[in-house]
Amino acid sequence: MSGLLENTSTRAIGADIGRVDGPAKVTGTATYAFEHQLNAPAYLHPIQATVVRGRVREFDTRDAEAVPGVLTVLTHDNAARLADIGDAELAVLQSDEVAHRGQVIGAVLAETPEAARQAVRLVRVHYEERSHDVRFSAARTDLYTPGEAEDDEQGDLAGAMASAPVTVDHTYTTPMEHNNPMEPHSTIAVWEDAGLTLYESTQGVHSVRSTMAELFGLDPERVRVIAPHVGGGFGSKGPLHPPVVLAALAARLLPGRPVKLALTRQQMFDLVGYRSPTIQRVRLAAEPDGRLTGIGIDVTAQTARFKEFLEQAGKPTEVMYAAPNRRITHRLAALDVAPPTWMRAPGECPGMFGPEVAMDELAVACGVDPVELRVRNEPGTEPASGRPFSSRNLVACLREGARRFGWQDRDPEPRRRMEDGWLVGTGVAASTYPTGQMPGSVAAVRFEDGHYHVRIGAADIGTGAWTVLTQIAADALGVPVTAVRLRIGDSSLPSASLAGGSTGTVSWGSTIVAAAQAFRERHGTAPADGAEARAGLPDNPNRERYAMHAFGAQFAEVRVHADTGEVRVPRLLGVFAAGRIVNPRTARSQFIGGMTMGLSMALHEDSVVDPRFGCVVNHDLAEYHIAANADVVDLQAHWIDEADPYVNPLGAKGIGEIGIVGTAAAIVNAAYHATGVRVRELPMTLEHFLA
Amino acid sequence: MDFLSPSTWEEALAAKSAHPDAVPIMGGTDVMVELNFGRRRPPALLDLTRIPQLRDHGPDDGYLRLGAGVPYTTIIERLRDRSPALAQAARAVASPQIRNRGSVGGNLGGASPAGDAHPPLLAVDALVELASVRGVRRVAAREFYHGPRRTARRDDELISAVLLPEPAGPQSFSKIGTRNAMVIAVASFSLALDAQARTVGTGIGSAGPTPLRAIEAEKFLASEFDWDGAASPSPATVTRFGELVASAARPIDDVRGSAHYRRHALSVMARRAVSWAVTDYRKEIARCA
User: Fold this and answer.
1) B276 FRET partner, CA 20 to 30 A, in A367, A398, A664, B145?
2) If you average pLDDT over every residue of chain A, what do you get?
3) What share of chain A in percent tops pLDDT 70?
4) Chain B contact set for A629 (CB, 8 A)
């Protein structure tokens, strides 16, 4: 089905092309949501609940309203009524109820951001406070099984564990983590007779449009969302969160005037989601040679009491290794907390920590090399579904990674290498991420002024979408890249699915291919000025027949100081099998970005909740550590040539998330090899290595 | 909030006298963060950026006089030989951008127990110069820190300078954090030897309500150190020194580290500092011979 792309002579796909939006970004002319120049904006600052649970009895806003420049204090008393769309998180200012600390209970609208902020400090709120519970634990008696994740059982894992010569049975934990894109969540909302215009930092202008239209009871045609450039999202800008709703509610009180809202870094720890902590009991049953007879993962995660979200950390265990007996369960603890959300590789990222460390423990127990152990457990078909893989090159990644990393000379014994006071070790872990495709995209191609204008309402959140979609359009039309004029990031363009689940490039790219084909079919190779065609994303019947995933292998070298326990990661090397790579430069950036975030997860990231107050105490970037430049030394990403004729017309798999999957396990496994100390909780800190 | 912006030192002192609750600001690397986070809301800010002499440095009667507003970058680039421990500490502060703006005066004004500049000031027995309309006085850094964020500075006083004695022996600073840069210390330690007086100075950071000295450890090492030949101290001596430094700390558990880890880290840093000092001292002897 990739005929058009095979026959083209231009070959923009695969070329190492610099970002088409790069010059604008490095010269500061790329416009982010908050930066759009609009006339006479007003500024919004949220009022946040200072209790964890209860209801607001009364606002005393006299002092706040006396601040010069204050226009309005917005509360549930004067906010517009919204439609109930079944998402309690977005029912902003619809009642006096407080469901978590930091929840938006109001806002001040003022002539300046300073006046708005000062006035918020002067609002006195009287609450009726209720007792709360934010303690996350697998020992809670009120855990429940979420509807979207019934227990998945094949064979008899307990029996396999009882009879296996070698078993691993340990509990692994990952902490609450916050997405923290560089650009804070920000909105400019303008309410006019014609409708609502939103300049929004989002992973999908069309989903913002449809959700906001529904909430505010507007015809979608009357809502326009603009987002040409977005400074990172990592999932938290995928689903909508309260701030955009708040901005629109405020704008409605001030028709004709732009209302600007940019969250502070601290507000981002309360209002725009996070990765749930997970507790994972992992069980492996094996023969003495390491062949698995059983594999199981029992996941406990948290959700908000008022809105369910499940971190599906058990999912990769459906995909990774062959074993006749398998058990995957999820349990949720409903707490008085803000709702968790997607964070880069939701499910897979935490869900490959426990199992991949457990595999290392099994390798040690069996005396089998950890690369070889994974090769021995390679399945013929997708274990949980029995479907064939459209392509699966995990073994090739492991072998290629081992070769590049210099794995073959490794002494498997831990705590054997000491260099200048540092214990040195190496470790490996596997990566996987599903190759999805989101329905709903439409692309238009128009020939005008000697250029092909390609329009689709896609989002570039720093991934390189501007660039790779230009390349795909060029090849699909059989023209040079310079003949293509791409437009994305505006809901007035044809509909596009979300930049999420690593589906953006393949969904939008396949849609552009379809539109280009329609254009050529209708207008030939010498189109008249003004010739146009559009097409939607075609169905791919192969999606029913094949299991589609990208795979990878990550290798880490770790140094742990023998006296202080300080941890350094001098080397990280990943090899990925992700179909056709559209642009090696932006792809490498995605892989190493993911791996850096995985390093950060391994060593640093940890949102610490104070159970008394129900809030994250280290809610700024001085205390919530993210890996700094000095923590990243030799970081390499490679990929193998993988031709997959089934996934999509491009033969490409999504690559935005797989880089973070498995990294933390590789680092923890390397630390074990260095020290002989097995760490089963993240982040791995200095204190783990003190006797 | 008032914003006072004197253009001379005399005006600054008069302003501080008239507004004793005004918070001085220069680089803003601490004060602006506190304002931004709403941790404090002073009635006035006293802008000292227009006072040139606060950025001056030079010799002063056997001391290096360092204006309170000299940025860390200047200490690293120009004053390394005259303030080795402080220059090492300056290198460990935050990021290049912060080091271009932040200053020792600001560290002293904020008096966070985690401030990187404090341990070297304690170890080398620096003086803090405090000025007001009433006059100028100099307080030993060792008498300066009174409690959590409380110091010997009186409300009407401004910090004008620190005075660092001429280095008279090896000095060092080390810091342990949970990442490689941009990190608040889990614990830090500074050691300074004075070969003429045959005394030892120490400073402990991030492991107590204030920056601390390890006085017992100082006395112990001064008596055990081979001031003539710099023979390597026995492992037992080094270990004991580490223990005495660790026992002088008064750490707590927090998100950055446990009290237990902090004591352990201090003993490691103290032992390392002794071995560096011995090596440096030997080089010095060889150079003089």
Assistant:
1) B145
2) 97
3) 98
4) 181
Which H/E stretch holds residue A598?
helix A584-603
**pLDDT tens for each residue of A288-314:** 999 999 999 999 999 999 999 999 999
pLDDT at A280 over 70: yes
Task: State which residue of chain B sits closest to A630, comparing Cα positions.
Answer: B180
Contacts of A309 (CB under 8 A, 6+ apart): A276, A303, A339, A340, A341
Which residue's structure tokens are 């000092």? B277
> Is residue A1 over pLDDT 50?
no
Q: Which two tokens stand for residue A325?
A: 């007996």
pTM summary value? 0.96
pLDDT at A7 over 70: no
Region A580-598 average pLDDT = 98
Please tell me whether the interface predicted TM-score (ipTM) of this complex is above 0.90.
Answer: yes
What residues in chain B have per-residue pLDDT under 50? none
Q: Are A617 and B255 a contacting pair at CB < 8 A?
A: yes
| CA separation for the pair A238, A500 (Å, rounded) | 7
How far are the Cα atoms of A51, A104, A331, A438, B288 from residue A99, in angstroms, in the given order?
9, 10, 21, 32, 72
A6 annotated active-site: no
Task: Please check whether residue A25 is in contact with residue A494, taking contact to mean a CB–CB distance below 8 angstroms.
Answer: no
Please, what is the Cα angle at A556 between A550 and A558, to 5 degrees?
155
Please report whether residue B129 resides in a domain: yes
User: Which of A596, A608, A631, A682 is most worth mutating to test chain B (most B CB atoms within 10 A of its CB)?
Assistant: A631
How would you class A417 by CB atoms within 10 Å of its CB: exposed for 0-12, middle for 13-18, buried for 19 or more? middle
Residue A123 · residue A108 · CB < 8 Å: yes
Ramachandran angles phi, psi of B2, nearest 5°: -80, 150
A33-131+180-271 adopts what CATH topology? Aldehyde Oxidoreductase; domain 4 (3.30.365)
**CATH for A152-176+275-436+545-689, options being 3.20.20.70, 3.30.70.1350, 3.40.640.10, 3.30.365.10:** 3.30.365.10
pLDDT band of A10, cuts 50, 70, 90: low
* A645's tokens: 């004729």
